[in-house]
Amino acid sequence: MNDSKTVVGIDIAKRVFQLHWIDQETGEIMSLQLKREKFLEHFANRVTCLIGMEACGSSQHWARKLTAMGHHVKLIPAKAVRPFVGGNKNDAHDARAIWIAVQQPTIKAVAVKSEEQQAILALHRMRQQLVKFRTAQINGLRGLLTEYGEVMPKGKKGVEKGITEALQRLSDRLPAMVIDTLREQWRRIGQVEGQIGEIERRLKAWQKEDLACQRIAKIPGVGLLTATAAVATMGDARVFKSGREFAAWLGLVPRQTGTGGRIKLLGISKRGDTYLRTMLIHGARAALTKAKDPLPWAIALRQRRPLNVAIVAMANKMARTIWALLAYGRTYQKEFVSRPV
Fold first, then answer.
1. Whole-number Å distance between alpha carbons of 19 and 37
2. Is the Cβ–Cβ distance between 229 and 128 less than 8 Å?
3. Which of 37, 252, 258, 330 has a 20 to 30 Å separation from 243 between CA atoms?
4. Tens digits of per-residue pLDDT, 307-318?
């Protein structure tokens, strides 16, 4: 049996995997449940086929394993699978929906990442969690101090400047156990700050070893976090046909609505990876407002458009430049002018 053109939809889980495909010889609709232990063994005995899976927990791991066996794997975003789920939601219906979605030419698959790229993304996710925890702890501390008339400025630096004097003033009015607890919370914030710094040092060490990161880090507005996140998130740059497609995948293009041939452009679509899009926008804001020598076209754009519009436009340009440098293996040139071939 030659099932090289067979398409298999897989609904993965922790213990039981659901498969859906159509037999190429008989046309029979096949539905199969496999235990985790038997999953790879099943595909080791099959001829190369196209496998579709929903991009979720452990999907990258299984995609790498199946690709190593010679199969073609496409990871489909969960949002793109949902419209094809018919009837009640269960594993069999989900597998069938994935089988349908993987065959749609307009659905963009999620890049299959290497273990190294996924490890870098893990560092970014852990740093992101620590930053959220630090912000929550600082806001909680500011709120507690406000109850006793000590109003701290917003942000970590504002609290850092006045926290010592504020606790000293309150030590004469409040019980010692309260003051000690507030000081412990401030020390805990310092510990989290140290953990964030340690992760950033590890990312910097990886950046020094990775040529792709070094290449795109020279782009104005692209720093350590943006460079490492972009390389790890994109996977293989050649998966995208153009820089515009990469920018659209990140949600840095306008949404459209229209009928009868009339199209209206709205705000940015905000599709794709929220974290990387946020990094690019923050980097564009810094490059546009704080750079000593901003790009001439960016200055002209800011003069004729609102600031936020100019920032998003520059973030879009940065995304296209990142794709071009990684896809063609080039280095950044400030005065480079692209020309059609």
1. 15
2. no
3. 258
4. 898 999 999 999
